[in-house]
């Protein structure tokens, strides 16, 4: 059957790109490097030619179907989906109503988090809402810029400024950061993505930092400014501090309640991953405040953070890099644990 001229024209107008998509939930093997349509620009969007993509735990949680959540909370996704949120790249084009950015601008973003769908980060091109985009810090490359958004915004929104009014469904009260200057802060998981940023923000704000990480990360954490480093393989993480003002548990989960005993009355526990915390009565008895928030995309905050990254006040640590075509191997690396900093995918457009 012959195609009409209009049909031929429409076919020629379709652009494809390389992307990593999944057509079902599962392990790293479900990640497929394949052709996908370049998404069409909508109003108030910018198309970014992606140079690097930062990996984050929600990537493998979603890949696996968020199995740790109650069934009613598990996502119902429209397969195929593209994972990821953190990108750094160059503006290729902008919608007609966008004046804030122009083709050629170097930018970075956490794209549409906590949403997900067919146009996310593991791809050669990504459409980004203007409100979620910021100019890339000029002093760092695309790999380091892509590694920053989610982990750095998480630390920032927990510790400095929430930046949104969306309620955490796991607690009745709004999350409110606490003053850091002059305080003693214990950071569990200090060598990981969120943890290594939390150490630097705390030191920048004038706090004393007790870092808990593996022994091999001690040298790095000393460089980042920690005052005391404890190897959790030798000493239990909840036994390294006493009368602490704030615990930031970058590991979180069901074991986060063990840190209640390290806090002074009136202190605070911020579990980055609060699901599974069940010691509310004990926290109330001890006079300890437990609070968390859900990180959300915020271009304005990324603009503020770009200055700190550009000036070297906050440093991005890279664990490893993989080409986009080897996204499966990058997830396998993440599954082995003991990540120091961030894992990043690189995109070669040649």
Supply database-style keywords.
Quinone Oxidoreductase, Chain A, domain 1, 2 domains, 16 strands, Rossmann fold, six-stranded parallel β-sheet, alpha/beta
Question: Your description of this structure?
Answer:
This protein has 350 residues and is of the alpha/beta class. It has two domains: 192 residues, Medium-chain alcohol dehydrogenases, catalytic domain (Quinone Oxidoreductase, Chain A, domain 1), CATH 3.90.180; 124 residues, Rossmann fold. 23% of the residues lie in helices and 26% in strands. It is built from nine helices and 16 strands. Strands 3, 5, 6, 7, 8, 15 and 16 form a seven-stranded mixed sheet that branches. It has a six-stranded parallel sheet with strand order 11-10-9-12-13-14, sandwiched between helices. α7 links the parallel β13 and β14. α4 crosses α5. The N terminus is likely disordered.
């Amino acid at each position: 059957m012959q195609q009409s001229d209009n049909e031929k024209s429409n076919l020629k107008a379709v652009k494809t790109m390389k992307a990593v998509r999944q057509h079902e939930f599962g392990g790293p093997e479900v990640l497929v490097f394949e052709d996908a349509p370049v998404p069409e620009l909508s109003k108030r969007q910018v198309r970014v030619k992606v140079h690097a993509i930062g990996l984050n735990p929600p990537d493998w949680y979603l890949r696996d179907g968020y199995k740790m959540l109650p069934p009613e909370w598990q996502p119902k996704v429209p397969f195929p989906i593209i994972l990821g949120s953190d990108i750094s790249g160059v503006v290729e084009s902008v919608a007609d109503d966008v004046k804030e950015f122009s083709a050629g601008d170097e930018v970075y973003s956490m794209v549409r988090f906590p949403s997900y769908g067919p146009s996310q980060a593991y791809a050669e091109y990504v459409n980004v809402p203007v409100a979620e985009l910021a100019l890339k810090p000029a002093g760092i490359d695309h790999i380091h810029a892509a590694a920053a958004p989610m982990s750095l915004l998480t630390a920032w929104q927990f510790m400095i400024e929430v930046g949104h009014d969306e309620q955490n469904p796991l607690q009745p009260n709004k999350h409110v950061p606490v003053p850091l200057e002059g305080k003693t802060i214990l950071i569990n998981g200090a060598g990981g993505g969120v943890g290594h940023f939390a150490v630097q923000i705390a030191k920048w704000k004038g706090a004393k930092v007790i870092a808990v990480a593996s022994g091999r990360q001690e040298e790095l954490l000393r460089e980042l400014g920690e005052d005391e480093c404890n190897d959790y393989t030798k000493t239990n993480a909840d036994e390294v501090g006493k009368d602490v003002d704030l615990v930031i548990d970058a590991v979180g989960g069901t074991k986060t309640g063990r840190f209640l005993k390290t806090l002074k009355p009136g202190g605070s526990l911020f579990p980055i991953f609060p699901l599974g915390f069940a010691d509310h009565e004990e926290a109330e008895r001890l006079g300890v405040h437990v609070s968390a928030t859900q990180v959300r995309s915020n271009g304005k905050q990324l603009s503020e953070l770009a200055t700190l990254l550009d000036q070297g006040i906050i440093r991005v640590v890279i664990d490893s890099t993989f080409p986009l075509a080897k996204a499966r191997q990058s997830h396998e690396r993440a599954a082995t644990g003991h990540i120091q900093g961030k894992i990043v995918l690189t995109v070669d457009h040649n």
